[in-house]
Design a protein that fits this description.
By secondary structure, this protein is of the alpha+beta class. The chain has three helices and five strands; from the N terminus they run αβββαβαβ. Strand 2 and strand 3 form a beta hairpin. The two termini are 17 Å apart.
């Protein structure tokens, strides 16, 4: 996944990286799981087994525009979690940041 992100950067594409930095209870992916998102919305890797990745990709594209990292949190008690499908009973925190350099 990181190799693909490096390849995209070498091609001149903008890339964001999403990383699971904290989990509570039942979580779809462990801490350290990563998702690389290219400026056209293509992505590799996984931070959630698919249940929230659409939202993470959307937010990652926003960080490419703003240039600012963002902390995302999803949990069963959040309305957004149900909307995007995180009904596993746990919570995850994901750091999304543009790759520079």
């Amino acid at each position: 996944m990181l190799e693909e992100a490096a390849h995209w950067r070498a091609e001149g594409r903008r890339v964001a990286l999403a990383t699971v930095i904290e989990t509570w209870g039942s979580a779809p992916r462990p801490v350290g799981s990563q998702l690389a998102i290219r400026d056209d919305g293509s992505f590799v890797g996984s931070v959630s087994g698919g249940c929230i990745e659409g939202d993470v990709v959307t937010r990652a594209l926003e960080t490419l525009t703003s240039g600012k990292p963002e902390m995302l949190e999803y949990g069963v008690s959040d309305a957004m979690a149900w909307e995007v499908g995180l009904a596993c009973g746990g919570r995850i925190r994901v750091m999304v940041e543009p790759v520079t350099g």
